[in-house]
Amino acid sequence: MAAREIGYISKKRNSGSRKTKKIILMITEGNNQTETNYFKRFESHEYRIVFARGNDTDPVKMIKTLKLQYDALGLSAEDGDLGMSLIDTDCEKYKDSQIRDADNLCSNNVKQYVSSPCFEIWLLCHFEYSSRQYNSSDEVIRRLKNYIKDYSKNDENTFEKTKSQISTALENAGKLNNHCILMGKKPHSVEFMPSTEIDSIIKLLLNKK
Q1: Residue 96 in 3-state DSSP?
Q2: pTM of the predicted model, to two decimals?
Q3: The pLDDT value given to residue 14
Q4: Which of 49, 65, 102, 177 has its CA 20 to 30 A from that of 7?
Protein backbone atom coordinates (compact mmCIF):
# COMPACT_ATOMS: atom_id res chain seq x y z
CA MET A 1 0.00 0.00 0.00
CA ALA A 2 1.43 3.35 -1.07
CA ALA A 3 0.08 5.44 1.78
CA ARG A 4 0.06 4.82 5.51
CA GLU A 5 -0.18 6.53 8.82
CA ILE A 6 3.07 7.80 10.29
CA GLY A 7 3.10 4.98 12.66
CA TYR A 8 5.80 6.28 13.91
CA ILE A 9 8.25 5.53 11.13
CA SER A 10 11.71 7.00 11.25
CA LYS A 11 12.26 9.52 8.49
CA LYS A 12 15.58 10.99 9.60
CA ARG A 13 17.81 11.03 6.54
CA ASN A 14 21.02 10.19 8.38
CA SER A 15 24.03 8.27 7.12
CA GLY A 16 23.07 8.88 3.49
CA SER A 17 20.13 6.48 3.59
CA ARG A 18 17.90 8.38 1.15
CA LYS A 19 14.54 6.80 0.45
CA THR A 20 13.78 6.07 -3.20
CA LYS A 21 10.49 7.95 -3.12
CA LYS A 22 9.86 11.49 -2.03
CA ILE A 23 7.51 11.83 0.94
CA ILE A 24 4.16 13.61 1.03
CA LEU A 25 3.00 14.19 4.60
CA MET A 26 -0.74 14.87 4.65
CA ILE A 27 -3.00 16.13 7.41
CA THR A 28 -6.80 16.01 7.25
CA GLU A 29 -9.51 17.62 9.34
CA GLY A 30 -10.53 16.13 12.68
CA ASN A 31 -11.53 12.47 12.60
CA ASN A 32 -12.44 12.67 8.93
CA GLN A 33 -11.36 9.49 7.17
CA THR A 34 -12.64 10.44 3.71
CA GLU A 35 -9.43 11.87 2.29
CA THR A 36 -7.26 9.45 4.25
CA ASN A 37 -9.06 6.41 2.86
CA TYR A 38 -8.90 7.84 -0.66
CA PHE A 39 -5.19 8.60 -0.68
CA LYS A 40 -4.29 5.37 1.11
CA ARG A 41 -5.22 3.61 -2.12
CA PHE A 42 -3.28 5.93 -4.40
CA GLU A 43 -0.16 4.55 -6.04
CA SER A 44 2.57 6.91 -7.18
CA HIS A 45 5.95 6.01 -8.65
CA GLU A 46 7.56 9.18 -7.34
CA TYR A 47 5.88 9.81 -3.97
CA ARG A 48 5.01 7.91 -0.85
CA ILE A 49 2.07 9.30 1.15
CA VAL A 50 1.98 9.21 4.95
CA PHE A 51 -0.45 10.88 7.32
CA ALA A 52 0.26 13.27 10.13
CA ARG A 53 -1.32 12.67 13.51
CA GLY A 54 -3.85 15.12 14.86
CA ASN A 55 -7.56 15.83 15.03
CA ASP A 56 -7.67 19.61 14.60
CA THR A 57 -10.21 21.28 12.32
CA ASP A 58 -8.80 24.79 12.52
CA PRO A 59 -6.69 25.41 9.37
CA VAL A 60 -4.07 27.36 11.36
CA LYS A 61 -3.61 24.60 13.93
CA MET A 62 -3.47 22.04 11.14
CA ILE A 63 -0.65 23.85 9.34
CA LYS A 64 1.27 24.29 12.58
CA THR A 65 0.89 20.58 13.41
CA LEU A 66 1.89 19.61 9.88
CA LYS A 67 5.05 21.74 9.97
CA LEU A 68 6.06 20.37 13.37
CA GLN A 69 5.69 16.76 12.24
CA TYR A 70 7.37 17.51 8.90
CA ASP A 71 10.43 18.74 10.77
CA ALA A 72 10.28 15.98 13.39
CA LEU A 73 10.40 13.34 10.66
CA GLY A 74 13.44 14.94 9.09
CA LEU A 75 11.66 15.73 5.84
CA SER A 76 13.30 18.22 3.54
CA ALA A 77 12.38 20.53 0.68
CA GLU A 78 15.80 19.79 -0.81
CA ASP A 79 14.81 16.12 -1.02
CA GLY A 80 11.50 17.03 -2.64
CA ASP A 81 9.38 16.14 0.41
CA LEU A 82 6.05 17.95 0.73
CA GLY A 83 3.50 18.74 3.42
CA MET A 84 -0.18 19.04 2.50
CA SER A 85 -3.09 20.19 4.64
CA LEU A 86 -6.50 19.27 3.17
CA ILE A 87 -9.21 21.78 4.08
CA ASP A 88 -12.97 21.96 3.46
CA THR A 89 -14.74 25.30 3.73
CA ASP A 90 -18.05 23.59 4.63
CA CYS A 91 -19.94 26.78 3.67
CA GLU A 92 -18.74 28.28 6.97
CA LYS A 93 -17.91 31.94 6.43
CA TYR A 94 -15.72 32.09 9.56
CA LYS A 95 -13.27 29.77 7.82
CA ASP A 96 -12.22 32.54 5.42
CA SER A 97 -10.05 34.24 8.02
CA GLN A 98 -8.69 30.92 9.30
CA ILE A 99 -7.70 29.81 5.81
CA ARG A 100 -6.10 33.20 5.11
CA ASP A 101 -4.09 33.05 8.34
CA ALA A 102 -3.02 29.49 7.54
CA ASP A 103 -1.91 30.56 4.05
CA ASN A 104 0.43 33.04 5.71
CA LEU A 105 2.12 30.14 7.53
CA CYS A 106 2.61 28.07 4.39
CA SER A 107 5.84 27.71 2.45
CA ASN A 108 6.88 26.38 -0.94
CA ASN A 109 6.93 22.82 0.39
CA VAL A 110 4.16 22.97 3.02
CA LYS A 111 0.80 24.16 1.71
CA GLN A 112 -2.93 23.84 2.21
CA TYR A 113 -5.31 22.58 -0.44
CA VAL A 114 -8.86 23.85 -0.22
CA SER A 115 -12.14 22.35 -1.40
CA SER A 116 -15.30 24.42 -1.31
CA PRO A 117 -17.50 23.29 0.16
CA CYS A 118 -15.92 19.82 0.58
CA PHE A 119 -13.70 17.04 -0.77
CA GLU A 120 -16.70 15.39 -2.37
CA ILE A 121 -16.61 18.07 -5.08
CA TRP A 122 -13.52 16.26 -6.35
CA LEU A 123 -15.41 12.96 -6.39
CA LEU A 124 -18.38 14.55 -8.12
CA CYS A 125 -16.05 15.84 -10.85
CA HIS A 126 -15.52 12.22 -11.90
CA PHE A 127 -19.12 12.12 -13.09
CA GLU A 128 -20.24 15.63 -14.04
CA TYR A 129 -19.35 19.25 -14.54
CA SER A 130 -21.73 21.59 -12.74
CA SER A 131 -21.20 25.05 -11.32
CA ARG A 132 -24.32 24.86 -9.14
CA GLN A 133 -24.03 26.43 -5.70
CA TYR A 134 -24.44 24.53 -2.43
CA ASN A 135 -25.69 25.51 0.99
CA SER A 136 -23.93 22.67 2.78
CA SER A 137 -21.51 19.79 2.30
CA ASP A 138 -24.42 17.40 2.83
CA GLU A 139 -25.99 18.72 -0.38
CA VAL A 140 -22.85 17.74 -2.29
CA ILE A 141 -22.91 14.26 -0.78
CA ARG A 142 -26.57 13.79 -1.71
CA ARG A 143 -25.76 14.72 -5.29
CA LEU A 144 -22.76 12.39 -5.32
CA LYS A 145 -25.03 9.53 -4.29
CA ASN A 146 -26.76 9.85 -7.66
CA TYR A 147 -23.58 8.27 -9.01
CA ILE A 148 -22.21 6.27 -6.05
CA LYS A 149 -25.35 4.93 -4.41
CA ASP A 150 -23.62 3.47 -1.37
CA TYR A 151 -21.21 6.36 -0.78
CA SER A 152 -20.24 7.10 2.81
CA LYS A 153 -17.49 9.29 4.22
CA ASN A 154 -15.71 6.32 5.78
CA ASP A 155 -15.85 4.11 2.69
CA GLU A 156 -12.42 2.56 2.17
CA ASN A 157 -13.13 1.78 -1.50
CA THR A 158 -13.97 5.22 -2.85
CA PHE A 159 -10.74 5.42 -4.84
CA GLU A 160 -11.46 2.10 -6.56
CA LYS A 161 -14.99 3.26 -7.40
CA THR A 162 -13.75 6.40 -9.14
CA LYS A 163 -10.23 5.78 -10.43
CA SER A 164 -11.31 4.88 -13.97
CA GLN A 165 -12.66 8.42 -14.40
CA ILE A 166 -9.71 10.40 -13.03
CA SER A 167 -9.02 12.06 -16.39
CA THR A 168 -12.61 13.33 -16.46
CA ALA A 169 -12.28 14.58 -12.88
CA LEU A 170 -9.09 16.49 -13.68
CA GLU A 171 -10.75 18.18 -16.63
CA ASN A 172 -13.92 19.10 -14.71
CA ALA A 173 -12.02 20.35 -11.64
CA GLY A 174 -9.96 22.62 -13.85
CA LYS A 175 -13.10 23.98 -15.50
CA LEU A 176 -14.66 24.69 -12.10
CA ASN A 177 -11.58 26.59 -10.98
CA ASN A 178 -11.58 28.67 -14.16
CA HIS A 179 -15.30 29.36 -13.80
CA CYS A 180 -14.83 30.68 -10.26
CA ILE A 181 -11.99 32.93 -11.41
CA LEU A 182 -14.08 34.27 -14.31
CA MET A 183 -16.88 35.01 -11.84
CA GLY A 184 -14.45 37.13 -9.83
CA LYS A 185 -14.48 34.87 -6.78
CA LYS A 186 -11.55 34.88 -4.37
CA PRO A 187 -9.48 31.66 -4.19
CA HIS A 188 -9.16 29.98 -0.79
CA SER A 189 -12.49 31.32 0.36
CA VAL A 190 -16.00 29.99 0.98
CA GLU A 191 -17.30 31.89 -2.05
CA PHE A 192 -14.87 30.10 -4.40
CA MET A 193 -17.48 27.42 -4.94
CA PRO A 194 -17.77 24.83 -6.23
CA SER A 195 -14.07 24.10 -6.47
CA THR A 196 -11.35 21.78 -5.30
CA GLU A 197 -7.56 21.79 -5.36
CA ILE A 198 -7.34 18.02 -5.05
CA ASP A 199 -6.70 17.94 -8.79
CA SER A 200 -3.36 19.69 -8.19
CA ILE A 201 -2.33 16.87 -5.86
CA ILE A 202 -3.46 14.20 -8.33
CA LYS A 203 -1.51 15.82 -11.15
CA LEU A 204 1.59 15.81 -8.96
CA LEU A 205 1.13 12.15 -8.05
CA LEU A 206 0.54 11.18 -11.67
CA ASN A 207 3.37 13.42 -12.90
CA LYS A 208 0.99 15.38 -15.12
CA LYS A 209 1.56 19.02 -16.06
Answers
A1: helix
A2: 0.90
A3: 44
A4: 102
